[in-house]
Amino acid sequence: MNVITFGTFDCFHVGHLRIFSRIKTKYPSSTLIVGISSDKLNFEKKGRYPVIPLEQRMEIIKSIRHVDRVFVEDSLEKKGGYLAKYKADVLVMGNDHEGRFDTFSEICTVEYLERTPQISTTEIIEKIHTDT
Q1: Measured between alpha carbons, how far is 37 from 74 in angstroms, rounded to an integer?
Q2: CA–CA separation, 46 and 56 (whole Å)
Q3: 73-111 tens-digit pLDDT
Q4: How confident is the model at residue 128 (pLDDT cuts 50, 70, 90)?
Q5: pTM, entire model
Q6: Neighbours of 83 (CB within 10 A)
Q7: SS3 label, residue 70
Q8: Torsional sign, CA 85, 86, 89, 90
């Protein structure tokens, strides 16, 4: 079974780790494939470039024991193509995206996991800016 998730994974934190861990706990014999947003795509989505460059984010995510494979996501419009290419059985996203990816339920099961409370990359970056 192939399970896929997507994200920027900038300023890696425990919330990122927990989503990978929870996916592997729920789907223990699955292959976990992670699409990592390119710097350009992150700018298009959030209006800012990641703090951590793509190559470093990929290296970090590759080193996580729960993750089996990573690739660069360079376009939101290609998400369905990525699901098909990697033969995804399940797409897992954080529940802050609830309903946003339901259109892909024709390709695979779509599931939303609860985010780790009180932690986000945006909050970390904002805190750094206010503390300096």
Answers
A1: 6
A2: 19
A3: 999 999 999 999 999 999 999 888 899 999 999 999 999
A4: low
A5: 0.87
A6: 24
A7: strand
A8: negative
Cα–Cα distance list, 94 to 5, 6, 22, 37, 131 (Å): 9, 9, 11, 15, 28
Confidence of residue 72 (pLDDT cuts 50, 70, 90): very high
Can you tell me which residue has the tokens 């861990």? Answer: 21
DSSP-derived secondary structure for 78-119: GHHHHHHHTT-SEEEEEGGGTTTTGGGGGTSEEEEEPPPTT-
Cα 31 to the center of its chain, rounded Å: 15
Helix (H/G/I), strand (E/B), else coil: 71: strand
pLDDT at 6 over 90: yes
The pLDDT score that the predictor gives to residue 93 is 94
d(CA 24, CA 34): 12
Question: If we measure between CA atoms, which residue out of 3, 4, 2, 6 comes closest to residue 75?
Answer: 6
pLDDT tops 70 at residue 112: yes
Between CA 126 and CA 51 the distance in angstroms is 12
